[in-house]
Fold this protein.
Amino acid sequence: MWRKSLELAIIEKDVAKMEELLQTIPEFTTLEEMQRAQALLRESVKLLEALKSETLSTMKRIKQNSDFLKVSQEKEFGRLDIRS
């Protein structure tokens, strides 16, 4: 049940569900169960790292766009033009 839930969370990229499942890792009785869980945990880590990288990239783009808009507004509305 835990393994299937984690597989589904990975497929759906459901970070909250992955976090919940990682807090409740069950005891495994066979080597095969342990190996499957280990593989899923590796996939979880890869996905989380990819999502983190994507988020950082998005945040950088937002910051660049925000800075550009600030500069554009300052030039456009920075001074009172009394000559026109």
Observations:
- The two ends are 73 Å apart (CA to CA).
